[in-house]
Specification:
The protein contains eleven helices and 16 strands. It has helices spanning 49-56, 124-128, 131-144, 161-172, 186-191, 205-212, 229-232, 256-260, 276-292, 308-315, 332-345, and strands at residues 2-14, 24-32, 37-47, 67-68, 73-79, 89-92, 107-111, 116-117, 152-156, 176-181, 196-199, 217-222, 236-244, 265-268, 299-304, 326-330. Helix 3 (131-144) crosses helix 9 (276-292). It is globular and about 65 Å long.
Amino acid sequence: MRASTNASMTAAYITGFGGADAIRVGRLPRPVPGPDEALVRVDAVAADHVDTFVRSGAYATDVPFPFVIGRDLVGTVAVPAGPFAAGDRVWCNSLGHDGRQGSFAQYAAVPVDRLHPLPAGADPVAAVAVLHTAATAHLGLFRTARLQKGETILVLGGGGGVGSAVVQLAATAGARVVVVDRAENAEWCRAGGADQVLDRDDPNTPDTVRDLAPGGVDVLWDCSGHHDFETTVPLLARGGRVVLTAGLHVRAVLPVGAVYTRDISVRGFVISNASAAELAEAAEDINRELARGRLKGRIRATLPLAEAARAHRMLEGREGTGAPGRVVLLPEDLGRARLNRADKEGRHTCRVC
């Protein structure tokens, strides 16, 4: 991606690592797409926890300053490339990493092998809220854990962003889904396809899991990041698989004997390391479920792009209610249109639910 000297755009960016207040919103040169890149006019973006790790320097990756933050976008092709024509509705969930500039801007240059068509009729805000979490869920379930139809998966924190996608995709694949989460998330998890939802605050929950799966669960995915292996490893079947994706700074105790004597595997992964081909495979399933209306996420807040720092503070628990759901941001043009429409309808699009 090269920067234009003639046109500019509004972007949320950093000039060095730091806290959320290091994020600036201002004018940067509009990118000029390089070979095999399309220029996309951005309609909506979502804030991811990994964005805060990159912004702070906690997650080591190539960051060219000034660096536009953000991974995900839904938008419209402005300058075509590859199979994409001008005007095509598209999405991407793998910018802002490994030297690629991010998505929090009015325009983004996107490699065509990381760009995917948006299904007809899909709302950009609803779609962008699930793109990153659903791809993470897909990779963890089918590439890492190799989940099979009829197997049992135990999801801890099934009401969160990734957890919700794990529940929905696992249920669609024909797995038996047991969720442990707060009681207030039970209805949401059941609507996503969970067969059983157990209260995480109930001390009898591990015994209930044993009753539900006497032979043990096949896959364990702790989306909450707590990783109490001394409690959860005994719940696994022989040959069970543990997926690790959360808890960047957690130091967990692993009962090693219980792991190796029962052929249990523990595998960690991040979506950032996935190849373009793996992301494209996940995108096929994501688009199918979006088109069918079966892939849904909760939106915690919808903000203008100018409030990118606030979005990061919300993710880090330093602002807002801590309610579940994704934080979606709108670039200037779409944001103004939505805010004007909201004013006419007597409601607010900047919402915390």
